[in-house]
Amino acid sequence: MIDINLIRENKDLVKENIKKKFQDQKLPLVDEVYELDKLYRECKNKCDSLKSKKNKLSDSIGVLVREKKQEEINQTKIEISSIQSDIDELDKREIELQGKIKERMMVIPNIIDKSVPVGKDDSENVEIEKYGEPVVPKYEIPYHADILESINGLDKESSARTSGNGFYYLMGDAARLSSAMLSYARDFMIDKGFTYCIPPFMIRSDVVNGVMSFDEMDAMMYKIEGEDLYLIGTSEHSMIGKFKGQIVKEEALPITMTSYSPCFRKEVGAHGIEERGIYRVHQFEKQEMIVLCKPEDSMQWYNKMWSYTVELFRSLDIPVRTLECCSGDLADLKVKSCDVEAWSPRQQKYFEVGSCSTLGDAQARRLGIRTKGKDGNYFVHTLNNTVLASTRALIAFLENNYNEDGSINVPKVLRPYMGGKEIIKPIKK
User: Fold this and answer.
1) What is the pLDDT of residue 273?
2) To pair with 212 at 20 to 30 A between CA atoms, which of 38, 229, 358, 364?
3) How many angstroms separate the CA atoms of 377 and 65, rounded?
4) What homologous superfamily is domain 4-105 in, according to CATH?
5) Which letter, b or e, does each residue of 37-68 get, where b requires 16 or more Cβ atoms within 10 Å of its Cβ?
C-alpha cells in the first residue's frame, strides 16, 4: 500500500505507475481516493472543530456552576448534547470514508523502481547475467521424473490415491537428497549471519492481506474451512507477520532471518509435461530469507540477497542466470524483483528456481511495522528471497549432476548431509 500523500500531492505519478504495470482498469481508483480523501479530511476537520467547541462549553459549565446560573447551565448542556450528536454522526462518516479509501488503496500497486524495465509479462523480463557454463552433454538427459524413478525415488501413484494430483512421495536417496539440500541451504544462510527460524505454517487473514495482493492470495492460498487461517504458500509471509503492529528498535536493524517451512499452493491452471513430475506441485519445502531494514539500506540488501542464491546454486554445480522482472510481471506490492533461473540441460533453457524482491514499505505500511528514529517513527522496508525451493532445486540438481551411466554425482558440500555418499547409482530392476 502506497503513502496516501502520493495521491494528495502527485496523482499523475501514481497513474503513470499504474500504466507502466498495464493495469489501466485501476486508473479511476486514484481519482476516487483523491475525492474520498478530501471528503474525509473535511469531515475530520469539522469533527475536530466540534470537539474543540464541546470541550470549551464543558469547561464553561464549572464557571456557571460557581456563579449559580442554572438556566445557562441547562442551555449549555443541551447545546453540548446537540454537538455530541453531530460528532457521533461525523465519527461514523469518518469510519465509512476510511473504509472506502483503504479498500481502494489496497488495490493500487506500489511505485516501482525507476530501474525496472517496462513490459507486459514475464516474456519481457530482461537477462542480467549468467553464472557458470550452461553445458549440454553429448548424452541424453532424461525427464526428471524418469531419473527419480530410476533410483526408486518418486511415487505419484500412491499420492494420487491419498491426496490427488499435484502431490508426490519422495523415497530413499531422492528424499534424502531433498532434505540434504534444505539442510545445506539452512546452514549456508546461518553462515551468512541470518537467524534461523521455523515459523507457523498457518496465518490469519489480516496477515495474508498485509503481505500480498488480493490477486496473489486467490491464486495461491488454501483456506482452512471454518477458521480464519490460511496455509502458507511461502514462509516469508509468517516471518514478516511476526512483526505485525510492532515498533522495532532502530539499532536492531537490519533484522535478517532465514526459515524452513513446507509450502502449500493451489497452482491454478497447471498442466503439461513439466507439471506431471514435480515441477509444479501443491506442496513442497523451502528455505527462505527475509530482511527488515532502513529505507536507505534496502537496495544494498536486495543485491546481497539474490547473490546468496546464486552462490548456493553454483556450489551445487548448477549454472544459473538472473533475470530482471519487468513492470507487468511484478506483483502489486513489489518495488523491484529479479528471478534466479537454473539451467536445464534436458530442455536446453533456464527455468525459475527462486525470486528476490524488495517491497519498500508496502508490507510494513499494511501491517503497521515501524521503527523509531531521531525524527520520529517511520515504516521499515521489507525484502524476501528464495534460498532454495525443494522440488525445483531437485530437478535442477538431478539434470546437472546426471551421468551417462544413469548415476548422479553428489557435490562435496552435500556429502556431509548424505552420509558421505559421493554418487547415487540407479537401482537395477
Assistant:
1) 43
2) 38
3) 44
4) Serine-tRNA synthetase, tRNA binding domain (1.10.287.40)
5) beebeebbeebeebeeebeeeeeeeeebeeee
